[in-house]
Amino acid sequence: MYLNLSQRTQTRISALARARIAVLPFTAALLLASPGGAFAFDFNNVAKQAKDLAASSYSKPESNLPKEISNLDFEQYKDIRFRPEKSAWRSQKLPFELAFFHEGYSFDQPVKISEINGQSVREIRFDPSDFDFGANKIDPRKMRALGFAGFRVHFPLNTNKYKDEVLSFLGASYFRALGKDQTYGLSARGLAIDTGLSSGEEFPRFTEFWIERPKASDKELTIYALLNSRRVTGAYRFVLKPGVDTTVDVKAQLYLRENVSKLGLAPLTSMFLHGDNQRSQVEDYRPEVHDSDGLSVASGTGEWIWRPLVNPKRLLVTSYSLSNPAGFGLMQRDRNFADYQDLDAHYEKRPSAWVQPKGNWGNGRVELVQIPTPDETNDNIVAFWVPETAPKVGQPFNLEYTLSWQKDAEKRPPLSWVTQTRRGLGVLKKSDDNSIGLVVDFDGPVFKKLSDKVQPEGVVSSDDNGKVLETKVERNDATGGWRMTVRVRRNEDNKPVELRGFLRGGSTTLSETWSYILPPN
User: Fold this and answer.
1) How many C-beta atoms surround the C-beta of residue 244 within 10 A?
2) Cα separation of 395 and 194, whole Å?
3) Of 123, 251, 281, 440, whose CB neighbour count within 10 A is largest?
C-alpha cells in the first residue's frame, strides 16, 4: 500500500520549474464569477458552500482528459510547461505571482481558480495557449475543455532579483511550502481520512480556490479553498507568510456527510527509505535517504517526544494520546551534506514541518503511519491529529493551526534533543548474543550548564516484548553532548518492541523522551 503519489510528482515538476521556467506573467481572461453584483468575499462564503455541499449527495468526479493527454507518461507530462510570460500579476509588478499546472498524468480533474480583487470575484479561465507542450504532438485547440490541475505561488524569497516558488497546490488536498534556502520535500494535506486502515484511504480533494490579489506592499497572501469528498466537505483559509521559516496559517471548517472511522487533522506526508538507524537493504552510496527522519511531539504537559522514523516490512501504526498538544511535526534533523551525499536531491535542504495548534484541541492522539516502500519515489510516512470526540454529521467542526516550514531554526525542546539513533552493537556484540544494540546521541543547551559533578543517567524501559539488558551513558567528546547505549533483547520476533528513554541528572530531566519502535522481524 502506498500513498497518493502527487507529492513525488510535484517534486519533479518543481525541480523542472526551477531549471526551465523561471516565473511567470499572466494574460488569461478574467471573467466575473458573481453576476449579482459586488460583495466582500471571505471565509464565511466558502463555509456556506461547504455546508450546502455536505447537505447534498456526493457525485464522484470523472476524468475529463482527452486521449492525447491521458496517454502521456510522466516524462511526457513533465514536458508541458506554463509559459513564463503568462504569470498572474507580473505586469502589475506585485510582490506575489501565480503560475498554473496543466491537467495530465494522475491529475485528471480540473480545479476552479478565481481572483478576489476588492469586492469582485473573477474566475481565472484556463487557456491552453498559456502552455508550452514541448515535444508532445498536441494541438492546443483540442485542450480548450480542460482546466488547471493546480497552481504555484512565487515570491522574492532568496533574492530580490527573482521570485522563487514558495507554495504549491497540486493533487487531492496536497500542498507544500518553502522557506529560505529550502528545496521541496514533505507535503501537508488538508485532511486525511482512514489512513492506514484496511478499508482503504479516502482522499479529499480541493475543488475550488479563491486567491486575494495582493497590494504592492503586501508580505502575505490569502487563499481560500473548498474541499470535497464522499464523506466530508470543508472550507479552508490559508494565509501564506514567506520568510526564513515560511508559515501558513490554516483555518478550516469541516462538515461530515456521514461518519468517518478515522479523521486525521493537520496531516503531514513524507518519505523515509533508510537512515542512520536503518541501513539500506540494497547497495546505495548514500548513507541516508529521507525527507524526514523523525516525528517530534510537544505534549501539553511540557514533555517532548522524539520518534525516529523507520521503513518497516509491513504497515506500522503507532500513536501518542495527549490533551491539548503544544505541537507536532515531521522533522529533518540531519542537516549536513555528508549525511546524504546526494548532489541532485540535496536532502539536507528539505524542510521540517511543524504544526502549532491555535486554541485548545482537547483530547486525542498524534498518530504516525509508516508504510513499507522499496524506493524513494513513494511517500510512506503520515502524521496527523485524531480528535477523541469525532465531529457530528452535519455539524460544523472548526480547526486552526500554524504550519511552519523550517530548516535553520527548527522547533526543538528547550533542554536537549536526540541528534541521531544508530542501530548495532559493534565491538560490544558477542558471538552468542542475540541482543540488539541502539546508540542514541543527545545535544542541547542544558549540557553547557551542567555541573561537572553531575553524571547523566539513562532511564530506559521496554514493553512486554522486550527486555532492557544494559544502559550506558558517556560523554560524547566530539560533540559536547552525551551518548546513551542501550542493549535490548526481543522476546517474540514477529512482534514489535516499544522502547522509551531519556537522560536524567539526579531528579532532573535533562532531555526529550526518545521513543523508539523496533518493527517485527
Assistant:
1) 14
2) 20
3) 440
Residue with cell 490541475: 149
Residues contacting 43, CB < 8 A, separation 6+:
224, 235, 237, 251, 253
Q: Which amino acid is at 109?
A: Q
178 DSSP 8-state letter: -
What's the pTM?
Answer: 0.91
Helix (H) or strand (E) holding 10: helix 6-16
Beta bridge partners, 288, equal none
- Nearest CA to 288 out of 307, 310, 268 is that of 310
Tracing cell 486567491 back to the chain, one arrives at: 211
Q: Is 341 left (phi over 0), alpha (psi -120 to 50) or beta?
A: left
C-alpha cell at 445: 543547551
pLDDT digits (tens, 9 = 90+) for 34-85: 444 456 899 999 999 999 999 999 998 889 999 999 999 989 999 999 998 9
Q: Map grid coordinates 522481524 to a residue.
A: 521
Beta strands at 363-370 and 316-323: parallel, antiparallel or unpaired: antiparallel
User: What gap in Å lies between CA 189 and CA 170, rounded to an integer?
Assistant: 10
Q: Which residue, 16, 329, 2, is CA-closest to 168?
A: 16
- How many whole angstroms separate alpha carbon 146 and alpha carbon 427? 63
The DSSP 8-state label assigned to residue 480 in this structure reads S
**DSSP designation for 447:** G
